[in-house]
Each structure stands twice: as C-alpha cells, then as structure tokens.
What we know:
This protein is α/β, with parallel strands linked by helices. It has one domain (about 40-235): Alpha/Beta hydrolase fold, catalytic domain (Rossmann fold), CATH 3.40.50.1820. The protein is built from seven helices and seven strands, in the order αββαβαβαββαβαα. The chain has a seven-stranded mixed beta sheet, with helices on both faces. The chain is globular, with a radius of gyration of 25 Å. About 30% of the residues are buried. Mean pLDDT is about 90; it is low at about 1-20.
Amino acid sequence: MKRDMGRFLGFILVFFSMQGCSAQTQIVEGEMHTVSREDLSYYLYFPKDYETRPKEKFPILLFLHGGGESGDRLDSIKKSGPPKLLAQGKQFPFLILAPQNLHKKQWWNTRAVIQLLDSIVADNRVDKNRIYLTGLSRGGGAAWEMAVTYPDKFAALAVVCGMAPVPYASWINRDMPIWVFHGEEDKSIPISESIAMVAKLRQMGYDVKFTKYPGVGHNAWDKAYTTPELYSWLMQQVRK
C-alpha cells in the first residue's frame, strides 16, 4: 500500500512539474538543407529536318501524361497524347519532350520536370522563346501548376481535363495564350474545374480558348490531341 501511494505521489509531482515547464517552453530556430532526387525516364522527339537545318533553333513541346501512364514502363506513355500520335507515324515541326511520372499514386514532381526541361533545352537547339506546355488529367493539373510556378518559362499552355489552381490564376503570365479542353460528362475531374479557371482568367483579361466536348467523359484527350488547329496555334505563339 505504501509503495502504491509512493508511485501515485511520484506521478502527481511529475505531472505538475511538466505543467509548470510548459509555460517556460522556448521556440528555437533551425535550418536544414534538403535534397530531393527523382529519376525521370523520357522520350525526346526531333523533327525530321532538325539535322538538315543545323543553324536553326526549334520550338519544343513539353507533354505531361495522365495518372494511368505513371509507373516504370516508359512505353505506356504512348497510349495517349502526342506520344501516341508519334507512335502512329505523325510528324511534328517541333521537339517533343515526354517524361514519365514514376509514381502511380503521387503528384508530378514539377521541380524535377523543370530541371529536365532546362537540361534538354541547354543541350539542343531549342528556341527558348517557343517552349510550349501541355498535359492531360493529372498531367493537366501539373501543367497548370508549372504555369503558376514558372510564369516566365512558357510561350503557350494547353490543358486537357486538368484540376485547376483557381486561387493562383493571377500568378500565370498574363501574356501567355491558353487553350483548355474538357469533356462535359467528366466524372473523374469535373468540367467545373476548367469552367471556374477559365472564368477567373477571362475576368482578369487573359487570352483563353475553351473547348467543351458534349457527351464526352474523362477521355477528352483523344479529341483534343487530334485537333490539327491545336498544333498550328502552338506554332504561332512566341513568349513575350
């Protein structure tokens, strides 16, 4: 009994001493250098006349795929968008950089993507004023993010059924033309995402094209990326 009473009194003393100390807790400052590593596999397409015109600089299109193509099989990104068209034999007048998101259930590491893009641009004959950005679904959301985070990088942006960062719309380069595509019956990423973003941008005076597909669900990319006008529109854009 005395032993139990001693334990109880000891607990009471510790409890009250902790309560007293909490009022004296101090905040300390700290700093730590962090390094994040990302292994990015990618396809890089060159126009057929890239080698025959050695003094010319070419535009480049950065394409970000959707969540279904994430993983460690690079050829899976040929299922949609420009990589699918390239696999079918289509030619483009610009370079195309198509990296793969390694993580099936994680967001794109856009910092790693921008490092890859900068490296490709530095090592090849790329016109830095004609860097175009596009993405679909999860990659469309990442494309919006990159446009917000790197407003002075891109000459044009095309987003297909992507989640939109409406609160940060004003961070996007006001001089960059934008084209948004979305299926009206999309159950995965509702068209309301694009409607709200387009309305916000237009309210602030941005140049935005908006294509809605009646009766189309989440897969708006088959229609969007087989729209010839998309690529002629991209080629007209030069970063201001």
